[in-house]
Amino acid sequence: MNTGSSNLSLARIVFGLIIIAGSLLCLAQERRVIKFPGTEGLPFSDGVIAGDTLYVAGQEGTDDKGKLAAGGIGPETQAALANIERVVKAAGFELKDIVSVTVYLSDIHEFGDMNKVYRGIMPDPKPARATIQAAALVNGAHIEISAIAVKRK
Q1: Three-state SS annotation for the chain
Q2: pTM of the full predicted structure?
């Protein structure tokens, strides 16, 4: 019986298990859900925190009762960003923690008006951003914005 070879095999197995366990611990992150009153029956969360990252669901320019802000793209953009800020603050983050934004417009020709409001609200340095035109948005909205924030250390 060769005990040297058996001990080496056992050491390799133990080392492999330690590496796998360490990898799983790194992948396992605390997850917490942000869900506001009035959205209980909806099949999504307003935000999900995974580790140091917050994922904010698409927010339309609505008030607390779910009605679109009157006046078109400008007021809807302002309300959508206010809704994002509400999720961000509820999660313990700040607007300056946002690193990426996706803007969905029902009419790309409203980009300039959206951008004017966005520029005035989002802090510097501005997050990375993609803006696209969607064929249609829920509730007949002009805009929907989603965001990703990373907690600063």
Answers
A1: CCHHHHHHHHHHHHHHHHHHHHHHHHHCCCEEEECCCCCCCCCCCCEEEECCEEEEEEEECECCCCCECCCCHHHHHHHHHHHHHHHHHHCCCCHHHEEEEEEEECCHHHHHHHHHHHHHHCCCCCCEEEEEECCCCHHHCCEEEEEEEECCC
A2: 0.80
